[in-house]
Amino acid sequence: MLHLNLFIFGCGHHRAAWRHQASAAERLGDIGYYEELARVAERGKLDAIFFADGASVSHIEDGPRWYLEPLTMLAAISRATERIGLISTVSSTFYTPFHAARLVASLDHISGGRMGWNVVTSMFDAEARNHGYEAMPPHAWRYGRAEEFIDVVLRLWDSWADDALLLDRAQGIYGAADRIRPIHHHGDHFLVDGPLTVPRPPQGHPVLFQAGASAEGRDLAARRAEAIYAVAYDLPAAQSYYRDIKRRVREAGRTDPVPIMPGLVAYVGSTEAEARAKQRELDELLPQEASLRQLGMYVEQDCMGWEMDAPVPPLPPLSAFQGPKGRYATILRIIEAEQPTVRQLLGRLAAGGGHCTMVGTPEQIADQMEYWVHHEGADGFNLMPPTLPGGIEDFVDHVVPVLQQRGLFRKEYETDTLRGHLGLHRPPGR
Amino acid sequence: MLHLNLFIFGCGHHRAAWRHQASAAERLGDIGYYEELARVAERGKLDAIFFADGASVSHIEDGPRWYLEPLTMLAAISRATERIGLISTVSSTFYTPFHAARLVASLDHISGGRMGWNVVTSMFDAEARNHGYEAMPPHAWRYGRAEEFIDVVLRLWDSWADDALLLDRAQGIYGAADRIRPIHHHGDHFLVDGPLTVPRPPQGHPVLFQAGASAEGRDLAARRAEAIYAVAYDLPAAQSYYRDIKRRVREAGRTDPVPIMPGLVAYVGSTEAEARAKQRELDELLPQEASLRQLGMYVEQDCMGWEMDAPVPPLPPLSAFQGPKGRYATILRIIEAEQPTVRQLLGRLAAGGGHCTMVGTPEQIADQMEYWVHHEGADGFNLMPPTLPGGIEDFVDHVVPVLQQRGLFRKEYETDTLRGHLGLHRPPGR
Ligand SMILES: Cc1cc2nc3c(=O)[nH]c(=O)nc-3n(C[C@H](O)[C@H](O)[C@H](O)COP(=O)(O)O)c2cc1C
Ligand SMILES: Cc1cc2nc3c(=O)[nH]c(=O)nc-3n(C[C@H](O)[C@H](O)[C@H](O)COP(=O)(O)O)c2cc1C
User: Fold this and answer.
1) Which DSSP letter does residue B88 get?
2) Rounded to the nearest whole angstrom, what is the distance from the C-alpha of residue A120 to the centroid of ligand 1?
3) What backbone torsions phi and psi does residue A383 show, to the nearest 5 degrees?
4) Is residue B430 over pLDDT 80?
5) Is the peptide bond prior to A427 cis by the omega test (within 30 degrees of 0)?
6) Radius of gyration over every alpha carbon of chain B, rounded to an integer in angstroms
7) CB-CB contact of A233 with A330 (8 Å)
8) Sign of CA dihedral B417, B421, B425, B427
9) Chain B residues within 8 A of A129 when measuring between CB atoms
10) Do the beta carbons of residue A68 and residue B110 sit within 8 Å?
11) Which of A230, A415, B142, B314 is most buried, most CB within 10 Å of its CB?
């Protein structure tokens, strides 16, 4: 049984998707659009929808780099859906644990036990400067804060016993004061007395996702996360991350499943040629000059004269490259594996960046997903459709049925909670 | 034209309301309950529903002193309603302006321009201890922070021009970077660079409510609030507050209407006797011992031997009282005006405390409301029904039609925004 989330982002994860005639560029402030997407995902019996989050906006010329605040969106979406999980990113660097615990707990009540939170430590100085910092605090400090943050949030959720409310009209006793306890937290980062102002969430704890890439991030995920988002360009990269995380989870003494879900950008067609044509149609919408300028920054050379439909000119090896290595390594790998034209390379970078891309018929895509799941590459996927709603409609209507026929994916929801969909137990109250 | 908000709180504003057989005590974690209440209010063409907020919980034995987080509730409720305004309390002491601006702006988009925020500076040490403080910071500091907070929030809302999005597919230009500007705020309390991450709200600025009682609170309201909640036990108290605020508004150089809305606890019956019976039925649900113990704390003497259905024994005058004067003055006033029994006094204190109570037929209540509105007591009312949903159904089905017949209240919504309902103009972009 694999797990599938839909990562909802703007008009789709391909940067030029908004320029497509069929895009919903006009509707990004309209909650009805997101409700419709969530309903498509629910029709496909997906485990959850997921929103990323950030506190800065830039390069608005290029595309819809903004979004409504995800917690408020999910509250609305919860009323337009019935079973699907709802995951919001929450930054432990910018939120405080009391607000986070309360907002997410309330959403778990509102949605009847369908909430998850993806804890991130945030990245950009521009975000920090909206929250009282001159620049982004150091990585280690952020991870220290994240760990204490998670700790406090979990304790706040447990500050009400599951049976704290008595509702005894006859005796006039509404609740049991001794089943609602302060937490008296006084740590390096936070001072929080508790208790929380809302009863224990239906799931006990809304599900904790994490997506750490660094050693600190992986360790935090291994100790704390109940499900993990990954970035894996291909199966070897996925396997290396997967095995590393599973080892860290075991070393942390945990026996719960901790599903790992790499991002997946899928172009689905009734033939392979049709799928490739969809990809090409989007790639052709990329603005040539801006894309070449950006590529020039990634590879640290002038690309403005490069021929769009010719193969990418040879690039120096990773060892000789002085700039940020992560993205450069991805570029070298795409060139080695796919011998792309310049346009194709730009298209790959413009849709999911370092995430895995699959292009083909529903069977071909299902084959690859199955192979990853059976070879320690993934326990499921975080779907990042290049276009929305088209890309998720294609996936739900054509790939999901193939996965279902093969017994790899549920035909019906078997539970009503995100925790249930993911096969996670409900943590007992304290 | 008067304005009416519904202040939604638990099973109603009477402390014993949850014990009534018809109460929704079991449904306080069920968002459907609040959606139903909002729909009743919308059926009555009310201007808005309103949620208070706080960050601590206590005395859970006595009743439902908890609630879901209001911003997430309102996101859900916005999808179950179409025209009614949606007001959430937001504490400027515990939120940061970037989070507040973003959450409320998103809600204004989600609701299509129906959001308002009631800015409060918060009160209790127990709340402060959930947000990193050892105790509540001083009153003046909190009001200084509130003023800077409002300033930053408004500037963040204005950081996007109304026409910042171009959506030019053909040219590949999504937005106009020069119409989205940082705010570079660096003040005593906050460092916020901006811009906000969401486009300018449909209303320009979601409507700012305030409810200050102190001189600082009144001044802030006069300078900044677009509508004001008040506490007024009777018409003279309402007039004194009303005239004082209107004077301060004029002195602040403002010409906008700034409607003032005192709280109103109404018991509605088809006869006056029926209304009084409803009140008495609730008062009889008050737990005798706990209520007398609490009264003992308010008046600083032992009340445990007081006879419930006898008149309240004589109390020392205000000048001789050593404890907190506000509530004691209210108690003396209730005794003077109504010569209540002990049970009746407890009932008055248990439903809205110092807020105005009206008991009678729809016509009697409409008469009093009309009198207040025509004599500088109020521009509208913040309805605090003793029971929910019963108390608001009574009001909407019986009092609202009388107000409508007299031309005092709208028969249909004439606009789609809270700003429109309140007769406030839309602030132009900067
Ligand atoms: C699928 C996915 C979603 C992510 N969403 C966010 C997000 O919404 N906000 C954010 O600041 N970071 C997000 N990240 C980034 C990670 O949380 C993390 O910061 C990044 O992987 C770098 O890890 P490190 O800090 O351990 O080096 C996401 C990563 C992945 C793979
Ligand atoms: C109708 C109404 C609603 C209020 N809601 C809240 C609230 O939700 N949270 C809160 O902390 N204070 C709330 N208050 C309290 C006021 O904002 C304010 O703190 C109080 O009137 C004392 O004013 P002062 O601080 O100027 O002395 C409310 C007051 C009124 C009249």
Assistant:
1) E
2) 6
3) -70, 125
4) no
5) no
6) 22
7) yes
8) negative
9) 191-193
10) yes
11) A230
CA pair distance B71, B77, nearest whole angstrom: 10
**DSSP code of B314?**
P
Q: Which residues, in sequence order, are bridge partners of residue B85? A: B48
pLDDT in tens, chain A (430 residues): 899 999 999 999 999 999 999 999 999 999 999 999 999 999 999 999 999 999 999 889 999 989 999 999 999 999 999 999 999 999 999 999 999 999 999 999 999 999 999 999 999 999 999 999 999 999 999 999 999 999 999 999 999 999 999 999 999 999 999 999 999 999 999 999 999 999 999 999 999 999 988 999 999 999 999 999 999 999 999 999 999 999 999 999 999 999 999 999 999 999 999 999 999 999 999 998 889 998 999 999 999 999 999 999 999 999 999 888 888 988 999 999 889 999 999 998 999 888 999 999 999 999 999 999 999 999 999 999 999 999 999 999 999 999 999 999 999 999 999 999 999 999 999 7
Q: Is A120 in the pocket of ligand 1 (CB under 6 A)?
A: yes
Q: Is the CB of A52 under 6 A from ligand 1?
A: yes
Alpha carbons A204 and A36: distance in angstroms, whole number: 29
**Sequence-ordered list of residues with C-beta below 8 angstroms from that of B238, at least 6 positions apart, any chain:** B230, B232, B262, B356, B372, B377, B378
Ligand 1: nearest atom to the Cα of A139 = 25
Atom of ligand 1 nearest to the CA of A218: 26
Give the list of residues 6+ apart from residue B319 with CB closer than 8 angstroms, or none.
Answer: none
CB A92 within 8 A of CB A120: yes
CA B32 to ligand 2 centroid distance, Å: 27
Burial class (CB in 10 A: 0-12, 13-18, 19+), B196: buried
Q: How far from A60 is each of A19, B165, B174, CA to CA, in Å? A: 14, 8, 6
pLDDT in tens, B35-84: 999 999 999 999 999 999 999 998 899 999 899 999 999 999 999 999 99
Run of H or E residues at B229: strand B227-230
CB A134, CB A106: distance < 8 Å: no
Q: Whole-angstrom Cα distance, residue A17 to residue A118?
A: 25
Nearest chain A Cα to B96, which residue? Answer: A131
pLDDT digits (tens, 9 = 90+) for A224-251: 999 999 999 999 999 999 999 999 999 9
ipTM above 0.90, yes or no: yes
The tokens for A380 are 């499921």
CB A262 near ligand 1, within 6 Å: no
Q: Which residue CA neighbors atom 4 of ligand 1 most closely?
A: A52
Q: Answer yes or no: are the C-beta atoms of B327 and B270 closer than 8 Å.
A: no
Atom 18 (ligand 2): residue with closest C-alpha? B212
Among A68, A149, A173, most B C-beta atoms within 10 A, so best to mutate, is A68
Q: Is the shortest distance between the CB of B54 and ligand 2 below 6 Å?
A: yes
Name the burial class of residue A138, with classes exposed (0-12), middle (13-18) and buried (19+) by CB atoms within 10 angstroms of its CB: exposed
Helices (H), A158-303: 215-224, 235-251, 272-283, 288-299
What integer is the mean pLDDT of B328-354? 91
Torsion of CA B296, B302, B305, B310, to 10 degrees: -50
- For β-strands B85-91 and B48-51, DSSP reports them as parallel
* Residue-range domain boundaries for chain A: 3-263+408-421
Question: Taking Cα atoms as reference points, which of B25, B351, B248 lies closest to residue B359?
Answer: B351
Classify B3-263+408-421 by CATH class. Answer: alpha beta
A254-258, Cβ contacts within 8 angstroms, sequence gap of 24 or more: A254/A222, A254/A223, A256/A226, A256/A424, A256/A425, A257/A379, A257/A422, A257/A423, A257/A424, A258/A222, A258/A225, A258/A226, A258/A227, A258/A228
Element (H, E) at A117: strand A115-120
Cα–Cα distance between B244 and B214 in angstroms, integer? 12
Which helix H or strand E contains A194, and what residues bound it?
A: none
